[in-house]
Amino acid sequence: MGLVPAPLYPDPHNSLIFNNYPPLSFYLVGWLGYAIGDMVWAGRILALSAWFGTVILIFRLILQTGGNRLGAHIGSLIFALYSSYFFHSYIAMNDPQWMAHFFMLLGLSAIIQKQTALRITTAATFFIIGGLIKHNLFALPLAVTGWLFIRDKKMALLWVTLGLAGIIISTIGFNALYHNHFMIVDILHHKRVITLRRIKKALGRLAIFLPLIIFSASFLKKNIHLAKTSPKGLLAIFASLSLLFGIFESLGEGVSYNAFFESLIAFSLIVGLLFSNRWTEKRPFLSSAVVAFLPVLATSAFCLPNIIGHQHRLYREKQQWDDVISYVKAIKSPVICDISEICYWAGKDYKLDFFNFYQAVKRGASLDPLNKAIVTPVPNSMIRITLANKNPTYSPLWKIIMSYPHRYKRISPHVEIIEITGQKK
């Protein structure tokens, strides 16, 4: 975005770059990025704003579903603490997922209390916007769809019709805008490795949610059968689906805790409602609060110092990274960065998506594009690759790169420059 003229969706079969995200966030970030002069910071600003917006919407939704202000404060605090503590690297990350959640929760807020044709249309619009930002957030849209069919089939049919029409029209429109079919291929046929061997890791990520799940068990059991008469039934369906989709999506390589963001939102809403409607006596209230915040309390002794230490290290190393960016900026020959922001801030083209290209290779894609990229310059020019502690996950790619005559030098504690000096004999 804003770097060089290039397609938003390159040919996924003959490229080193892949884009498995829907197109809308690129325009939102792009508009702000051109205004402030930095696309990375624009993405971070929008992500942080959407996260704050999500906190506010959780507060509002708890009130809309029958909770009181105390419960709304506790539910939004649960969300804010868990996400900023356990998922702190996703706070203000240049990633569109929080934007998608924000728009979908806006839509939910429009219909949670009352369902009219206007409200359904408004909600469908916000959900479509969210889906055009991130397409694999399934739990809430499916929960709303099922809930509407249980409550009011006429409104449900309007919801489904608007949703399908919006998806089809926007997909056709965007696809026509790019003059090719690569958007559909890149998003729907993205080559990600999914394996059941990751089920242990997926279930392990549920550990931090166990107190919230146990805490909410009675709510789920009671309200999932009351969807016809209460919006609490919608939240019970949402929470249950979010766990299933979170586990499934965690089977994909490269997927982190963000697969469970919907679960965190759902259980924050439920816990807020539980604190609104129970435990008026002091002792049960305090014991319940300890259970709800147990993962944060139990891990604070070793997690919090690590988080604070990480922030201090980033501050101390700022000048080193500035020097690296200046060094790369002065390079005249083509550059491949395994930290793409280095290339961006150095004004260099983004040439190799290490993670997604390696995923494609593991799914049978050809290595020819990588070899071609390395030997394309005339013999007297050089390709330089910046890297931060070569990630062993991509060792097959590094093995190919290092098979060419090369030399390297370390220019900071974290970064080496690998200089390709010739072609293989």
Summarize the structure.
With 425 residues, the chain is mostly helical. Helix content is 63%, strand content 5%.
Please describe the topology of this protein.
Blueprint: H1 24-36, H2 39-64, H3 69-86, H4 97-111, H5 117-133, H6 139-151, H7 153-177, H8 182-188, H9 199-205, H10 210-223, H11 231-249, H12 261-277, H13 282-292, H14 294-316, H15 318-330, E1 335-337, H16 340-345, H17 354-362, H18 368-375, E2 383-388, H19 395-402, E3 406-410, E4 415-420
Parallel strand pairs: 1-2
Antiparallel strand pairs: 2-4, 3-4
What does this molecule look like?
This protein has 425 residues and is mostly helical. It contains 19 helices and four strands. It has helices spanning 24-36, 39-64, 69-86, 97-111, 117-133, 139-151, 153-177, 182-188, 199-205, 210-223, 231-249, 261-277, 282-292, 294-316, 318-330, 340-345, 354-362, 368-375, 395-402, and strands at residues 335-337, 383-388, 406-410, 415-420. Strands 1-2-4-3 form a four-stranded mixed β-sheet. The two termini are 38 Å apart.
Task: Looking at this protein, list some descriptive labels.
19 helices; 4 strands; 5% strand; 425 residues; 63% helix; four-stranded mixed sheet; mainly alpha
